[in-house]
Amino acid sequence: MKPEWHIETKCIQEGWKPKNGDPRVLPIIQSTTFKYDSADTLGDLFDLKISGDFYTRLSNPTTGAVEAKIAALEGGIGALVTSSGQSACLMSVINIANSGDHIISTVEIYGGTFNLFNKTLREMGIDVTFVSAEAGEDELDSLFRPNTKLVFGEILSNPGLSVLDIEKFAYIAHKHGVPLIVDNTFPTPINCRPFEFGADIVVHSTSKYLDGHATALGGAIVDSGNFDWAASDRFPGLSTPDETYHGLTYTESFGRAAYITKCRTHLIRDIGAAPSPMNSFYLSQGIDTLHLRMERHCSNAQKVAEFLEKDSRIEWVNYPGLKSNKYYNLAKKYLPKGTSGVISFGVKGGREAACRFMENLKLASIVIHVADLRTCVLHPASTTHRQMSDEQLAAAGITPDLIRFSVGIEHPDDIIADIDQALSAI
Ligand SMILES: *Cc1c(COP(=O)(O)O)cnc(C)c1O
């Protein structure tokens, strides 16, 4: 038996496993379709009697290799890579919640996910209750209904940077017989191991650190294989026959992999949010160096946060790696290697000073992006979160002056010098 590799080794060695004479580097199988010698074989593939690639909307060898790599990094039973983080979040929910159902989500989540839940899911007939990640057990207990299907939270929220108490949320979700789905985009599997703390499903926007180079949009859903879907009648989509597969029942045919199999064979088949093989290749290439990049993102961000904390031109700094931060202890527990490269802060002078500060930056660029190897900066209240009311912004931990600063992997002294000159020029 091969020894359990360290995560650094998995970043490089998991996924594509070349056989004798195969290319060493993951090949890009840029083909929508695959040839078979007999119609019977193809029929068996369609009926899920045998496994294999037949159409890239459902699976593709290049994408499959990245899925294996991401599943290995999270320690899950299987993964599905999607065309964006948004589609991963959507499918992770509608795989087990339908019209007439209810879900619970923390309110400290990415603005795009908030809109998805608050508008699109409601329009689809799925009711959503948002709750503060700080809520106590009694309050959380009171939110569950007979039709509640899942609890959703972001481990390190974008952009509020609150840290989810994963064990608390897993305990409460499980007490009510539903899974905990967590978005692990900012910490990545390098910094946080959600399954070890009881989360059941992990989702990612791979467009951020996993790709890391701002090259390929993408998302992922990873299944721990730990949740018992057959234990209650809450999940009929998994535990009763699916007519589109001749009455196959996911929990019977696929056991621990029921959830992730249904995500692929039902949802990505019907919705079609599949990644291109080229993007899967970029993603795999990005993950090869994820461990090195995360280490540098975190050490750079720690230096930048400490600089900001001491600077009199700064109103406030939020970085869970600072001892003064209210999430410091939760971060130490769940994110022992560091949180991420993302810092939020306010400059003295409020919203206007924030805009001038950003325009003065020379190294850091203003972009609608985050968690990238190049230092970048954004003002959420006027961009990514502009649809939210002031109350919704406040509940998500976003003030009008909040600057989201995504520390890259350049030399830390150059990043700090850029911030320093931009502050002086306000
Ligand atoms: C960006 C992001 C998403 C959405 O991902 P896309 O790849 O942009 O669709 C979801 N969750 C979090 C935490 C994000 O940062």
Question: Any key phrases for this structure?
Answer:
426 residues; alpha/beta; Aspartate Aminotransferase, domain 2; Aspartate Aminotransferase, domain 1; seven-stranded mixed beta sheet; five-stranded mixed beta sheet; 17 helices; globular; binds pyridoxal-5'-phosphate
Provide an overview of this structure.
The chain has 2 domains: 7-286, 3-Layer(aba) Sandwich (Aspartate Aminotransferase, domain 2); 291-424, Aspartate Aminotransferase, domain 1 (Alpha-Beta Complex), CATH 3.90.1150.10. The chain is an alpha/beta fold and 426 residues long. The strands form 2 sheets. It has a 7-stranded mixed sheet, with helices on both faces. A 5-stranded mixed sheet has the order 8-9-12-11-10. The N and C termini lie far apart (61 Å). The mean pLDDT is 95. It has 17 helices and 12 strands. Residues 84-86, 89, 110, 112-113, 154, 158, 183, 185, 205, 207-208, 217, 219 line the site of pyridoxal-5'-phosphate (PLP).
Topology summary:
Layout: H1 7-13, H2 39-46, H3 61-74, E1 78-82, H4 85-94, E2 102-106, H5 111-123, E3 127-131, H6 137-141, E4 148-154, H7 166-175, E5 180-183, H8 188-191, E6 201-205, E7 219-223, H9 236-239, H10 250-254, H11 258-271, H12 277-287, H13 290-310, E8 314-318, H14 328-334, E9 342-347, H15 350-360, E10 365-366, E11 376-378, H16 390-395, E12 403-406, H17 412-424
The structure holds pyridoxal-5'-phosphate.
The site of pyridoxal-5'-phosphate (PLP) has 16 residues, from helix 4 and helix 5.
